[in-house]
Every structure is written in C-alpha cells, then in structure tokens.
Amino acid sequence: MLRTEYPADAAACLPLVAAALQVYWTHMAAAPELAGLPKLDVGGVCPCCGSLPVASVIRSAGDAEGLRYLHCSMCNTEWNMVRVQCPACERTERVSYRHIDGSSGAARAECCEDCGGYLKLFHQDKDPLLDPVADDLATLALDVLVDEAGFARAGPNPLFIPGGDAGA
Ligand SMILES: [Zn+2]
Ligand SMILES: [Zn+2]
Predict the structure, then answer these.
(1) Among 2, 17, 113, 158, which one has the highest count of C-beta atoms within 10 angstroms of its own C-beta?
(2) Residue 61 maps to a domain
(3) Residue at 165 is within a domain
(4) CA 68 to CA 56: how far, in whole Å?
C-alpha cells in the first residue's frame, strides 16, 4: 500500500488496510514538530510522508482564499501549489478543466495533455463542507468521463483501488 502497489488478489482488503494506515499516518503527521515542512526535492508528493495527493482544494476563506492546496492521500497533510499547473509533471502549458454537465462545478478534473494525468480539483466556495477524500469517492462519474477522454489518475484514493489491471 505504501509503495502504491495494489495486488489485484488483495483488492478486497486494501481499503481496510488503507483506512487503518490513514488514521495512523494522520496521527503522526499532526505532531507539532512537523508543522511547516518545506517541500521535498521530488515534485508533487506530500512533504510530510512522500505519498501522492488524492486531489486539490481551492480554499474559500481566510488568508488562504483562492489558493490551491494538494491533499495527501495518506496522512491528510495539505501543501500549497500554484493554480493551473499539473500536479504530476508540474507543466503549465496544456492544462485544462473538465466537469460533469449540470453539476455544481465544485468538482473539476484538472487534465494535463503533456503527461496524460489528471487530478480532481474541489472548489470550496461552491461547497464549504467538501472533503477531498470522501468527495473524490462521491464523484466517480467524473473519473469515468476523463478516463474515457484518455487521461489517467495522477494520484490514488487508497479507499478505492479498482480490481483487475487498473490498480496502477
Ligand atoms: Zn502525507
Ligand atoms: Zn502533467
């Protein structure tokens, strides 16, 4: 799980392992001495535990209003990243946004045609109570839409690992 290797024959128990790890990792990441960590040399991973992000959030309140934060798929740490930049390859030229027709627009997919990756972007101003991990699961239709358009997820949701060969 921590190496993002998801054996298909263990798919049924992976969400339970992931949920337990998230609780423990989040507990460790909340230690006061870990506040304000600098970014790692490797782009696009959590500065606290090195895991991939599950999604991005655009904050709607306080000093962080309008800023984008990536949300760690494992320890729930959030870290700032400029907007309109691919979280996976950090390029900016061919980033576009897709959403489900008729939806509130709170959930969009930030798609990068350079690396073929996408990650969801949640707009807190459209839904102040949104949760990046839970709302990622609640918006699977958006994954289907961008998957059909040829994009692949740039970060996992450890609580939902598809079985078969789609786990990578
Ligand atoms: Zn983390
Ligand atoms: Zn990219």
Answers:
(1) 158
(2) yes
(3) no
(4) 7
What would the two tokens of residue 117 be? 């990756």
Cα of 43 from ligand 1 centre, angstroms: 13
What is the 23 CA–ligand 1 centroid distance (Å)?
12
Rounded Cα distance, 79 and 19, in Å: 21
* Ligand having the closest approach to the CA of 110: 2
Q: How far apart are CA 93 and CA 100, in angstroms?
A: 23
Quote the CA–CA distance of 139 and 127 in Å, as a whole number. 14
The rounded Å distance from CA 20 to ligand 2 centre is 30
At residue 163, the pLDDT reads 59
Residue 150 three-state SS: coil
Q: What is the pLDDT of residues 115-127, one digit of tens each?
A: 999 999 999 999 9
**CATH number for the domain including 16?**
3.90.1670.10
